[in-house]
Amino acid sequence: MIAYPLRTMRKVQLLDGNWDFVFLGDGIDVESIKPSCIVYDDRMPVPSAFDAYPSYAGKRGTAVYRTKIEVTLGRKSRIHFHGLGMWAGIYVDNQRVGQCSLPYTGFWVDVPPASHRERELVVVVDNRWDARRAPLQEQYYDFYAYGGIFRSVEWHEVPDLSIDRVSVTTLDVKAGVVAVAIKLLGAVPDSLDLRIAFDAGQSVVWKNQKVSDDHIHLEVKMPDPAAWSPRNPRLHTLRVVAGDDDIIERFGLRTVEARNGVVCINGEPQKLLGYCRHESHPQFGPALPVQQLVQDLQLLKDLGCNFVRGAHYPQDQRFLDLCDEMGFCVFEESLGWNNDVQHFNNPDFCDAQEEQTTAMVRNSYNHPSVIMWGYLNEGRSDKQESRSLYKRLAECIRREDGTRLVTSASNQPLTDVNYDLFDVVAVNIYPGWYAEDRELVRPLGEIVPYIHKVITHLEKEGLQAKPLVISEIGAAALYGWRDPLNAQWTEQYQSDYLETVCEEVMRNPRISGLAIWLFCDSRTYASSHSLMRPRTFNNKGTLDEYRRPKMAYNTVKRIFRGDNLCGLRARMNA
Ligand code: ADA
Questions:
Q1: Is any ligand 1 atom within 6 A of the Cβ of residue 411?
Q2: 487-537, pLDDT tens digit by residue?
Q3: Which of 137, 339, 472 to mutate to test the pocket of ligand 1 (most atoms within 8 A of CB)?
Q4: CATH of the domain spanning 11-158
Q5: In 343-431, at which residue ranges do the beta strands (DSSP E only) sit?
Q6: Percent of the chain having pLDDT more than 70?
Q7: Which long-range contacts (CB under 8 A, 24 or more apart) does 344-352 make?
């Protein structure tokens, strides 16, 4: 397994490696494909975004990946896809066994047993725009919509009764009391004996546990509890054995709450300082090797960050494991970008939003690093028509998880009609970049007054008890571009811009958090939508796409590493 949870009793084969591959082009009806008729003419690694590879760069159409695997005779199987894009149909031995229309989302596909040992897995992926087939992704979104099997694939052989997932919820940090919800699959009995062990310790038998709605719920006091916090990210494991199956989950003991406008972890105020980050590399697209994930987090640590906003889709579970270990706080969100009334009124879009948001929360539930859920980045939340979907998604998250903060990054900070639905007000603002006064050279003077204007508006709306996170703010700089004007696009302007922003955030206790747009330059659309995006990259990275630091790197680092908590403590205790 590439990430938690682990399994030790079932046979699991990691299918990463080189698969057969063919790109079929743009003329195919994916529903009429017969896997047995496909001729493969290339090889492609899994994971990969095929269109990040030079031979397929910029191509939109249908591509097919194929591999073969030897399994145990007579065993049921489940395939775990950790995430792909934009749409996929999945076939085993020429039979369609599943499909996925939720880019970047981890999901499972059930495979019936067969009377032969060798099984053929074919994944038909399609990266064409199609509002029905893949309603969550649109061409105008400001990040490149790749196609392919972006994340790992695992083949699990499962017994008749298996453990689907286990969710661990902190009830008491000091005493180490947790609620454990075990979700079963398959031949589920009315009651069941379980074995449970924390941190690879002695296992305890829980006899005859009642199953209701495929779940067993326990409240457990664990031995030797240690709290998780960003400064001291202590982790625990929990192993559950049910029949012939087991699962090892990793979790952290911690609480998250919003108190007097401040985000608190275990009752301690936090100033969240960090970046928005795309899963992006010019050579791999969103299929990043673990080495890159670690390097990105090391760079963020060096910058003095404790906060990452995973823009704008469900995160790689390996990345979240690393965030758990390294003490980052994460804002994870489902896929959306500037969606408008035509989306809010489209049942396919709304259902897919709910499906993806539910899957995101379930997949990431046990990561202590995730402290905040979001959705519909920059949707038209100034319009009344947005309310029903915004409300539906907030309710769906709270139904799945009542322990974390709910928000949505808004670019309508003065007119948003949905603030009442959130625990945290998150605003995306670009004063001094998309400047009010288009005649000014270096409009840095717009930044602080605009931040104050937003704060005054929130006070007027009676929202002072909700923490305020600036979930995006930033300026683009072309790597290496220095110029006597020091105007927009220069490294100097970006550095001066982020200096102004960071200093205001550090000195202002009303601001609970900052996620600068953007960690590193990231590939965006290649069509004429990109006329504001030189090189077809979003260039607001503090590092370029190869993670080379721009001038702003040291500026942000100097400021983030200063002290910022005094004001917050006073505010929290007010
Ligand atoms: C928005 C959006 C980002 C990016 C940014 C920008 O706030 O959420 O994805 O497009 O603007 O660079 O303008």
A1: yes
A2: 999 999 999 999 999 999 999 999 999 999 999 999 999 888 888 999 999
A3: 472
A4: 2.60.120.260
A5: 370-374, 405-406, 409-410, 425-428
A6: 99
A7: 344/379, 344/380, 344/383, 344/385, 344/386, 344/388, 344/389, 345/385, 346/131, 346/135, 348/131, 348/132, 348/135, 349/131, 349/135, 349/136, 350/389, 350/392, 352/101, 352/102, 352/135, 352/136
Mean pLDDT of 112-135: 95
pLDDT at 93 over 70: yes
Helix 347-364 to helix 387-400 angle (10° resolution) is 30
What are the boundaries of each domain within the chain? 11-158, 161-254, 272-572
- pLDDT band of residue 259 (cuts 50, 70, 90) is very high
Q: Which of 144, 381, 517, 539 to mutate to test the pocket of ligand 1 (most atoms within 8 A of CB)?
A: 517
What's the rounded mean pLDDT across residues 289-300? 98
Question: pLDDT for 300-349, tens place per residue?
Answer: 999 999 999 999 999 999 999 999 999 999 999 999 999 999 999 999 99
For residue 369, give Cα distances in angstroms to 117, 181, 246, 325. Answer: 41, 20, 24, 8
Ligand 1, residue 312: give the atom nearest the CA: 9
Answer yes or no: is the C-beta of 538 below 6 A from any ligand 1 atom.
yes
Residue 522 Cα to ligand 1 midpoint, Å, equals 11
Whether ligand 1 lies within 6 angstroms of the CB of 377 is answered as yes
H or E element at residue 511: strand 511-516
Secondary structure (3-state) at 420: helix
Residue of 338, 428, 497, 529 to mutate, ligand 1, most atoms within 8 A of C-beta: 428
What pLDDT is attached to residue 563?
66
Other CB atoms within a 10 A radius of the CB of residue 546 amount to 11
Q: Find out whether 444 and 486 touch, Cβ atoms under 8 Å.
A: no
Pair of tokens at residue 120: 């053929």
pLDDT in tens, 401-437: 999 999 999 999 999 999 999 999 999 999 999 999 9
Q: Residue 292 pLDDT > 90, yes or no?
A: yes
What CATH number matches the domain at 161-254, 3.30.830.10, 1.10.10.10, 2.50.20.10, 2.60.40.10? 2.60.40.10
Ligand 1 pocket, 367 CB below 6 A?
Answer: no
Pick the CATH number of 272-572 from 3.50.50.60, 3.30.70.1400, 3.30.70.100, 3.20.20.80: 3.20.20.80
Q: CB within 8 A of 414, min separation 6: which ones?
A: 453, 454, 457
What pLDDT was estimated at residue 570?
75
From the CB of 521, is ligand 1 less than 6 Å away?
Answer: no
What distances in angstroms separate CA 187 from CA 159, 162, 199, 301, one per listed residue? Answer: 9, 8, 29, 46
pLDDT in tens, 432-449: 999 999 999 999 999 999
Q: Does the pLDDT at position 564 exceed 90?
A: no
- The reported pLDDT for the residue numbered 562 is 87
Q: How far is it, in rounded angstroms, from Cα 71 to Cα 41?
A: 26
Assign 573 a pLDDT band (cuts: 50, 70, 90): confident
